[in-house]
Design a protein that fits this description.
Helices cover 49% and strands 18% of the residues. It is α+β, with helices and mostly antiparallel strands. 30% of the residues are buried.
Length: 277
């Protein structure tokens, strides 16, 4: 059960930028509207001055409406309307902040290994890896992660990328290449969670293991090391080709080979000078 679900009704709006008092006033108006500020102060047990200050803030946030006549009477905006406005304001603010921060962000290579901490972080990273790929994406995906990333894989294919990988149920008619893993039956019975592996351009690699319910992250690693990405690309491309059902399929997947594809990560790795130079 989420934190929001556990809260009493009087504090539900606290998670959305309202103070505790503002949240209490909204709930009281849902029960007793229309009501004057003096009556509301009595209902919540607060000083009238503090109550009127909170009501003014709620008007600015679009949570309540006030009459033009004195004494003012207040009524709540319907929850559907309130949350529609909150979503719109959040999306606008998020887009502005994202644009400003993107202008400041200069991607750089660190050649390091990082640990991820949540399923949400892992799935967002997975989608970003696919969206930022420029040449080839290889994957090893159990059914649930495959469903989550399907649209991103299709979009990558439509951009002209080579997209191929191992799946663990009967391959579907998708724009990208799906190969049933040779170990599909074994993995379904014995693997300790849901596997999600991605390698993009032999430049970055994501290795994720989620609990069977998809809610908990058991392992999550991401690296922008071309060396690690090239190793995983080579291994996964070989496994994809070996899992293909026929010689014809294997020939069709020959272009997945690291040396045949020559993705960005391999080129960067080849160009590197020894540390001693």
């Amino acid at each position: 059960m989420s934190t929001t679900q556990k809260r009493p009704p009087e504090s539900l709006l606290v998670s959305f930028g309202f103070t505790e008092l503002e949240s209490q006033l909204y709930v009281q108006l849902m029960r007793h509207a229309p009501a004057t500020g003096y009556k509301l102060a009595q209902l919540v047990g607060k000083a009238p001055a503090n109550t009127y200050q909170a009501l003014a803030a709620m008007e600015r946030k679009g949570a309540i409406l006030a009459t033009e006549t004195e004494p003012k009477a207040f009524r709540p905006v319907a929850p559907t309307e309130l949350f529609a406005g909150l979503r719109q304001n959040f999306n606008t603010a998020a887009q502005q902040a994202e644009s400003a921060l993107k202008a400041m962000h200069a991607p750089f290579e660190e050649d390091r290994l990082y640990r991820l901490k949540s399923v949400s972080q892992a799935t967002v990273r997975a989608r970003a890896i696919i969206e930022n790929a420029r040449q080839i994406v290889l994957f090893d995906l159990f059914p649930e992660p495959l469903a989550m990333l399907h649209d991103a894989l299709v979009a990558a294919t439509e951009r002209g990328l080579t997209v191929a990988g191992l799946v663990y149920q009967k391959p579907t008619q998708a724009r990208y290449t799906q190969v049933l893993a040779a170990s599909a039956d074994f993995a379904a019975k014995r693997w300790p969670g849901l596997q999600m592996s991605l390698i993009a351009d032999a430049r970055e690699v994501l290795l994720v293991l989620m609990a069977q319910d998809g809610e908990q992250l058991l392992q999550g690693l991401w690296s922008d090391s071309p060396y690690l990405a090239c190793l995983h690309h080579s291994g996964l491309s070989a496994e994809i080709r070996l899992s293909a059902h026929s010689g014809r399929s294997r020939d069709r997947l020959e272009h997945l080979s690291l040396l045949t594809a020559r993705p960005q990560g391999l080129k960067r790795l080849i160009k590197r000078k020894p540390a001693s130079e």
